[in-house]
Amino acid sequence: MNLSCAKNESAPRSSSVFADAARVALTILLTLAAVTPTSVAAQSPDTIPRTPEVIVDSASVKVAPAKAAPVKAAPKAAPGTAAPAKAAPAKPAVPRGPTAEEIARVRSDSVLNALWPVKGPEPLPGALLPHKRIIAYYGNPLSKRMGVLGEYPSDTMLRMLDEEVAAWNRADPSTPAIPALHLIAVVAQGSAGSDGKYRARMADTLVERVAAWAATRNALVFLDVQVGLSTLQDELPRLEKFLQRPNFHLGIDPEFSMKNGGLPGKRIGTFDAVDINYATQFLAGIVRRNNIPPKVFTIHRFTQRGVTNYQNIKLDPAVQIVMHMDGFGKPWLKRNTFRQYIKKEPVQFVGWKQFYKLRNDNPRTTIAEILALHPTVHYIQYQ
Predict the structure, then answer these.
(1) How far apart are CA 203 and CA 57, in angstroms?
(2) Residue range 107-382 in CATH 3.20.20
(3) Could you state, in order of their start, the residue ranges of all structural domains in the chain?
């Protein structure tokens, strides 16, 4: 099978050299001004998609230490002349007060903080959130470039996941971390395919392979859907046989939902509250018919137009919605994306994306920094 247009963790979303240069220049200016950046998103403009990829199935230099320049003694005054006057001692620096921008940000954060936690229906028994924290490995076993789930042999990958879960449990024992495998089960494509939908459905055998890996760790399984030119109404029903299992959950990716035109990888897609409400009710029906615990429903987001009419998203006690910050970049850039597209537009719970490749996250945001975020992050996805 030949897959394309799936998330490429090694390539930035922006294809513009000028955009990168402008971002660097802005960062330098903000640093010189000693002001924390607040208005720059971690991603390129909404019209610039991630670089499409094609996925095929299964000197170090030593520097000599600089020599210090010799120190010359000050010249002595000539006989019969007055010695030069001594310079007055420097006055101690006066601490800089907060700038107007910093004051405005604090006030804005105070307003945003008041929006959380979101008031909603009491979840059905057995709900995972907010009592647990989900640590998920994302990708597809058919690709080494779509994420950590397929980048390493399964035993190595699972051992790495064990270590991440343990690290989170050490950092915050009050919210037990649990493992998850997040499989891209419907992959957006760069070619139309036989039905013209620009997406590839993964075989049931692949889903079962990941489910078997998850069983060795008592882990959750997420099925992620990139619809291309298809719809959630066409894609979700064929996954119901898996979603009936108590440990199976759902993720959807607006980036590859081309409902407003265009092709995957050529522009960034979108989902509306109407689409999200359909998926919520689909999951809620499965929960109630099978008398199983609530489903976790993750929605990736890194642009303003990625999710429209968020205020119309309807909550259901059988489903727990996670708006997942899907951006990459330096920690301050990712925090800004989190603030702009997740915190400012509250739905229910929140998530955070971590990349292992330094070309995407350099440096990677630390666990301590993520734990310091408000609202509390309950879903962390590693790619």
Answers:
(1) 13
(2) yes
(3) 107-382
